[in-house]
């Protein structure tokens, strides 16, 4: 008798689930979250609003009020449509599923956000990784050659890039857009800290370009809410794939409420930028440690020959960061540090000073 294992998609049993460490009481500087909580008065106002919701009814399937608020805060013009998702992860799944044809491929740079590769594999698309150069910039000639050879259906480019933290040259992205036979997704998850956006450009987005964002880094990681912006015809195709009611009533109401108070989150982002600058300067003083400039809310550091020892020391000191060294390649001996609260960053620096003393 044939067991269910024999009916699974090829390769699924050899694939590992995305690892997420369980909460353990350590200072959490590994997940690129906004570490700030809400002011007490704002929290009370939010709870009072939630108390009026009828959670016995399905949510607004189109998220009309939230879309209206997103357009107002971020200046999203009427020439674009907006699609809401359960975090950017679901949006990556939706876009990839829309192009999951036999022999289709997804192209991205390497290193990049690991979900691009895992979702491509999930839907049976081949992934074309094009290595970045030593400064974590796009190797344009190699990327254009890969586009010419493989004709990828989807190209994912994070801006700033995760896990390296840097912005790619806009001229390189424009060249990729012009060469792309399919869709280019510009992932702006870290836009609150980057100071630039493809949506704020004076030029309109080409019809094959989608800008993807999440409210996780804005300060609402627990909501799992992302949004995709692009030409109405293209977004309309993805609406056919999106499951109805994919965003809950609580998430819609909370995100709409938070965006009405966006200046609170703008101030939090400014604090994170100041702390990022402080950490970058401090990291530069440690021996045998190279830090890379970041345009996000995390910093990539290169601890040549001692990344695992530093990671273990920080764990023992009650601090969790991200160890990227096992990935290898350009990330060998690299660690990624999320910018935390000033007190958390002080604890991090004290532990690192003890390690290097």
In short:
The protein is an alpha/beta fold. It starts with 26 loop residues before the first strand and ends with a helix.
Strand and helix map with partners:
Elements: E1 27-28, H1 40-50, H2 64-74, E2 81-85, H3 87-98, E3 105-110, H4 114-122, E4 126-131, H5 140-150, E5 154-158, H6 170-179, E6 183-187, E7 209-214, H7 216-220, E8 226-230, H8 232-239, H9 249-260, H10 262-283, E9 290-291, E10 298-302, H11 307-316, E11 319-320, E12 322-323, E13 334-338, H12 342-356
Parallel strand pairs: 1-11, 3-4, 3-5, 5-6, 6-7
Antiparallel strand pairs: 2-8, 7-8, 9-10, 10-13, 12-13
Identify the strand order in the major beta sheet: 2-8-7-6-5-3-4
Strand content: 15-25%
What's the story with the biggest beta sheet? Answer: 7 strands, mixed
CATH architecture descriptor text of the largest domain: 3-Layer(aba) Sandwich
Give the number of DSSP strands. Answer: 13
Model description:
With 357 residues, the protein is an alpha/beta fold. It has 2 domains: 21-39 and 263-356, Aspartate Aminotransferase, domain 1 (Alpha-Beta Complex); 58-260, 3-Layer(aba) Sandwich (Aspartate Aminotransferase, domain 2). It is built from 12 helices and 13 strands. The protein has a 7-stranded mixed sheet with strand order 2-8-7-6-5-3-4, sandwiched between helices. The protein has a 4-stranded antiparallel sheet with strand order 9-10-13-12, covered by helices on one side. Strands 1-11 form a two-stranded parallel ribbon. It is globular, with a radius of gyration of 21 Å.
């Amino acid at each position: 008798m044939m067991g269910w294992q024999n009916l699974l998609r090829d390769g699924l049993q050899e694939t590992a689930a995305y690892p997420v460490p369980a909460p353990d009481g350590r200072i959490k500087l590994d997940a690129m979250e906004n570490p700030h909580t809400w002011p007490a008065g704002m929290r009370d106002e939010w709870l009072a609003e939630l108390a009026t919701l009828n959670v016995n009814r399905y949510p607004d399937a189109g998220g009309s009020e939230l879309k209206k608020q997103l357009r107002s805060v971020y200046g999203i013009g009427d020439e674009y449509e907006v699609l809401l998702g359960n975090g950017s992860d679901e949006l990556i799944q939706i876009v990839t599923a829309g192009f999951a044809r036999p022999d289709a491929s997804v192209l991205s740079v390497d290193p990049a956000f690991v979900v691009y590769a895992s979702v491509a594999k999930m839907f049976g698309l081949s992934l074309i990784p094009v290595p970045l150069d030593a400064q974590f910039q796009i190797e344009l000639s190699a990327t254009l050659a890969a586009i010419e050879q493989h004709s990828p259906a989807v190209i994912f480019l994070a801006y700033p890039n995760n896990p390296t933290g840097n912005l790619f040259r806009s001229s390189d992205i424009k060249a990729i857009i012009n060469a792309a036979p399919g869709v280019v997704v510009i992932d702006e998850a870290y836009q609150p800290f980057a100071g630039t956006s493809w949506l704020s450009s004076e030029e309109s987005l080409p019809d094959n370009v989608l800008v993807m964002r999440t409210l996780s880094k804005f300060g609402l990681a627990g909501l799992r809410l992302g949004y995709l912006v692009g030409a109405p015809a293209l977004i309309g195709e993805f609406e056919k794939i999106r499951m109805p009611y994919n965003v809950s009533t609580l998430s819609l109401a909370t995100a709409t409420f938070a965006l009405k108070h966006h200046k609170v989150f703008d101030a939090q982002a400014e604090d994170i930028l100041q702390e990022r600058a402080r950490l970058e300067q401090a990291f530069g003083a440690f021996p045998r440690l190279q830090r890379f400039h970041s345009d996000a809310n995390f910093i990539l550091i290169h601890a040549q020959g001692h990344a695992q020892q530093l990671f273990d020391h920080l764990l023992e000191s009650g601090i969790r960061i991200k160890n990227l060294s096992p990935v290898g390649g350009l990330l060998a001996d690299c660690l990624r540090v999320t910018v935390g609260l000033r007190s958390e960053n002080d604890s991090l620096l004290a532990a690192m000073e003890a390690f290097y003393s």
